[in-house]
Amino acid sequence: MGGMVGTSRFVALAASTLVVVGALAGAPAAAADTGQPGTLYVQNVDWCSDTGPGTQDVPFCSVQAAADVVVPGQTVDIVGPPRYGGAVTITRSGTSSEPITFQGVSSDPIGTSAALILPPLLGGTITLSGAHDVHVSNLQLDHTTTDAVDVKGSQDVVLDRLYIAQQGPEDATAATDGVSVDGASSDVTVSRSKIYDSHGNAVQVASGAHDVTVTTNELEGSRYAEIAVSGTATADLTGNTLDDACGPGLTIDGGSSATVENNVFTGVGHGTVCPAPTAPAFSVAADSAASVTADYNAFALDSGRSEYSWGGTGYTTVAAFTAATGQGAHDLDHVGYAYPDATDENSPVIDSADADAPGEPATDVNGAPRVDDPLVADTGTGAHTTYDRGAFERQDTLPMPSGARSSSGIGPLSVSVTPGIGNPGSWGLPLTYTVDFGDGSAAVTDVSGTVTHTYTTPGVYAEKVTVTDANGSGATRTAKVTVGTATPPATSLTVRPEIFQGTVDAGSASLTLDHSDNWELASRTVSWGDASSDSVPVTRGAAGHDYDDDEPFRSYPLKLTQTDIFGRTATATATFRPADSYTPLTPPEYDYQGTVKAHGLLDLTSSTLHTDTNGVDAAALRVTVTGGTAGGYLTLYPYGTARPSVSAVNFAAHQTAENGMTVRTGPSGDVYLYNGSAASVSVKVVTAGIFSHAQYGHSYTPVAPVRVLDTRNGTGGVTGPVASGKSITVSVAGTHGIPADAAAVVLDVQTTSTQASGSLTVTSHGIADSAVTTSYWTKGQTVSNLTVVPLADGKVVLHNSSSGSVQLVTDVFGYADVTGTGSVYLPSTPTRILDTRNGTGTGGRIAKLGAHQTLKLRFSGVHGIPSSGTTAADLVLTAVSPAAGGYLTAWADGTTRPGTASLDYGTGRTTPNEIMPPVGSDGYVDIYNGGSAAVNVLADQYGAYVAQ
């Protein structure tokens, strides 16, 4: 008895009906149905959006999203269980002439009774708070520790055709109600609903409420009362079936006034937790007895339970109750017990109700009409003498009619229906057949033979054959008719990396599929181009695939093949190129510090570089080297590959130099570091971030290079040199094209007019332990260095660690975004793409880049870089042994040269710097020599940023 009683009730009904409910799910009545004006839609489809318009084409995913925007006169159609369930709070109101309606939409039953079709499962509870003129209908709710429906401070509320069941063990301690109406609410109706196994009351009305109607509900198995009314003025409690409450079936107290008619009380208290198993079925306290009228109620109680408690006195029979109180003159007892929704033929509750009892609707709890049972004498009263007592109206027992048959074909499609029935109804009344083809055409009535109909518009239709007896009882059989389009449904797909909460998994393909004609489809298959394929349900608008591939620049051909229900196929293709997204390491990891011998090779392992996580293809490194007795260079490249002819850091004897670079890793995540000097050197390696094709990270957006700080002229708000040991804070976000919420910014920081040797430290303002040393200089030297700085509040801190003052200049080149929609990274094996000493990258021309001259460097479409879609280059730019000091500027070809510097160099000193210039739409990068003398220039390619 301590089992999941509420759950089992749902499962028992749902097991045989859920497939049926979904039979027409998502199928339009015509091929291009955009929904009804004034209607908002909630539906669990891949293309739903809680920030969308809530149309049938783009429905909301949750009911709450619709509740937040619905206006008077609108209806919210909840088509099947919503994608996002949970508690729904309704605060918006309608008007008396234009109420707001929330209604579940179930598909037409195919080959079964409509009474077996459950309404859509909301997946949460409902609270109406301070709302008025709101209708809620045809929804299935479950609840555990809270009431299923709470009506708080609300007026003119209708709760109709709800299916509510308590979930959880029967002996749970929380006493929660099916429907609770607080004392600040009025004009509330609870009708034609089924509420089961409440751990409190099925319906509870609190003191202070008024004008509450509870009618034609099946209320069963509550721990306390099925209906509990306290301190309520004008409560109409009519036509309910109250079964197996552990307390009273209906209790009224607190000075309430009420009309109680046409209710049927059955069963006896039961359950693991049953506070009052012998309580009277119908209880009215002394403070309310004078204001309550009761009549036309019926009792079918097991032994051990009295029928009434009125003003503190119990009565075991109707006769005794009527004699003592004058109430219940037409009440019935000992009417015989059957399960409440299967009233026995010839039962005295049939055709014996007061049709004029307040709140009585024209249909019963299942939506069946009020009909006259010819086998029972009409003893009812009011405008109709044929209403039954309780929530259920006895119907003629009619077998399901034949004739409706599922069919499909290319339109125009002709179908024939010959309705019939195997046996006559139990009442022996004349029968009438009606055929409704479901396409808006007039139904055919009084059918006596075969009816032929032609469907002209493609779509899915519910063809219904209904048999009705002379008194109005009926039974309907429904079949699905699918009318195909003249040509196979077209298909299309778009592909981009997977985006989640503003981050991107650039190695996962996310397909968006055309869903406009999915009602006609039988199957979809996606071939991913890597020898794998997946079947995609036709009701889905998206599909995804992870590529476990660290081969740079590889593209995969995708093919979608769809087959419709008639065997016709259509295809669509696209191309996906897996790439990497960026994750900064905050604080940066100081991974290695040690000595590398002359011409030595150091293996920087994945555990050392923190590149041993999923799908890491490259690491953003900062490398500091202190030269020994000879100058030289360092080369960093993927483990297990041949050493390329590139240099990442150049240094003189006894000089400390630093540079950043993004280095592709080997398959195991390792990187080689080669010392190209004839002497041993000291090396320090810092991992600032990682690039992965299998993790969510940031995408990158380049901007036209712009200067945000120059202490020489006051740009950025600071004028004059920065003193020894002093810091300045620079705002870089929210200006110059950098969003205020940027996750990181790409800066090039130059130090000039240096009065003493030293270094520069860059710190993310507001992020502890984020300081990174980005450049070193000697007195009088100008140095620039690119760095990627994570952002917390849009600011960075620059600290002068030298013993003398310096002037600082800062340029911005781009940012890591928080949308995931920017560019993604393709790492490459380091490759020299420009060398003016031997004609590489210049078309064979061997010559230095002249003073104040510009060189066009082709970047896209060569060396493995895609020919289109490239947005930024990742290069190490080097000025070789300059004859005089100067600077180089790199920018997108076809745009105006910016007033920034990409590399500052001094006389005689080979100087490298990582740069990330935008790429022109023609695939070229321009490089300008701002020095007074010609200089040889090198450019080594480490990767590229490409649009998604």
How is the main sheet built? 16 strands, parallel
The gyration radius over C-alpha positions equals 39 Å
Poorly predicted runs of 5 or more residues: 1-35
By DSSP, the count of extended strands is: 63
Strand content of the residues, in percent? 35-45%
Task: Give the SSE layout.
Layout: H1 5-14, H2 18-21, E1 39-43, H3 63-67, E2 75-79, E3 88-90, E4 100-105, E5 126-129, E6 132-143, E7 149-152, E8 155-166, E9 179-181, E10 186-191, E11 194-196, E12 203-205, E13 210-215, E14 218-220, E15 227-230, E16 233-238, E17 241-243, E18 250-253, E19 258-261, E20 264-267, E21 282-284, E22 292-295, E23 298-301, E24 308-310, E25 313-315, H4 318-325, E26 332-333, E27 407-410, E28 413-417, E29 431-436, E30 451-455, E31 459-469, E32 474-484, E33 493-500, E34 503-513, E35 521-527, E36 533-535, E37 542-546, E38 556-564, E39 569-576, E40 581-596, E41 601-604, H5 606-609, E42 616-626, E43 632-638, E44 649-651, E45 656-664, E46 671-675, E47 681-692, E48 700-710, E49 727-731, E50 744-752, E51 758-764, E52 772-777, E53 783-790, E54 795-800, E55 807-816, E56 824-835, E57 854-858, E58 870-880, E59 886-892, E60 903-905, E61 911-915, E62 924-929, E63 936-946
Parallel strand pairs: 1-2, 2-4, 3-5, 4-6, 5-7, 6-8, 7-9, 8-10, 8-11, 9-12, 10-13, 11-14, 12-15, 13-16, 14-17, 15-18, 16-19, 17-20, 18-21, 19-22, 20-23, 21-24, 23-26, 27-32
Antiparallel strand pairs: 24-25, 28-30, 29-31, 31-32, 33-34, 34-37, 35-36, 35-38, 38-39, 40-47, 41-46, 42-45, 42-47, 43-44, 43-46, 48-55, 49-54, 50-53, 50-55, 51-52, 51-54, 56-63, 57-62, 58-61, 58-63, 59-60, 59-62
